Amino acid sequence: MRYVKPHYYDNFKCIADKCPSTCCAGWQIMIDEGTLEKYSKEKDEFSHRLKNSIDWEEGAFFQNNGRCAMLNDNNLCDLVTAKGEEFLCKTCHLYPRHIEEFESVREFSLSLSCPVAANMILNEINKLTFLTQEDDLEEPLIDEFEDFDFFMHTQLEQAREVLFGIIQNRELSADERMAHIMTLAKEMQLCVDNGEIYKIEDIINTKPDVPPITPHHRYENATATYMLFIELEILDKKWPEIISELKHNLYDISFDNYSIIRDEFYQDFVCFLSIERWDIFKEQLLMFFVYTYFCGAVYDDCVYSKLALATFSVFFIEEIIISTWLSRHKQITFEDCIEISYRYAREVEHSDINLNTLEEIFMERFN
Ligand code: SF4
After folding, report:
1. Ligand 1 pocket at CB < 6 A
2. Which domain holds residue 44?
């Protein structure tokens, strides 16, 4: 088995009650079957409280005002206090660690939705690197990977390496890099659709004609796609407000108004921060989404939508940042940008319904 993880992965440490946005609130925490069974057999003093905190039909912890029933007023988990971390269900034990499984490869990442992880990902100035380890201790589960397309996975892994090179090419602007990978995304998807997966290797190494992103194109794209958020499941009650503020602040008046606001944001906040640093912020976001999701196309053949999700996410995180800057009287900090990024990830990445809906829409547009 080969194991891959980002270079910062092992440095993660949960800050528990110091967390500005605990993961124990805002979404339903599902409990795996093995842990449910273990909890059901508990007979000690704490077991009464534990059993009453579980919705046994749903297999999830109850919530009080959107907070997990185990979370106390000091933002500490009573289950951990009473029984220790090893007693947590798989979801709580793992988060914010995320695992993507392939036939003989296991890829680890940290979820952008955790504030500590988001800080680790987005405060990094150096190019993201990965640590790889290999051993013979674990054999792939043959049954689970019966239909696994090993050849396609190899092609995707090689393509992702090239994509990483494009995303981390700091001689280009982040927007030029995004346009480049979306041009390749279209061509790679055509290979998959035509059953010519072997051609991905050639395509990824060509230098395609990349159409420049004009301000008009950006505006049309933004006004057409922000509507997508309306179709998504809402996890944070404040999210619809953020989206309607985005529409009101940036899109409702006119293209000229949109362009003026964007230019002013760049001249104000981005120039203050430095264009290079802003592009690195977008680069790290892109790297996160492409590393975490791209090779999953081996399971659904949707190469295009994986890259569309990555560029869409970077694009919209920036749009929400600009809208927030405007709402706050043209004031924003880099820390606010990180917060907007993890809030976006909570809304989009942490709902399978939302991820699938977005991918379906991107694939429909491609077709
Ligand atoms: S969101 Fe991250 S830092 Fe905050 S409580 Fe959860 S795991 Fe810990």
Report:
1. 14-16, 19, 22-23, 95-96, 114-116
2. 24-94
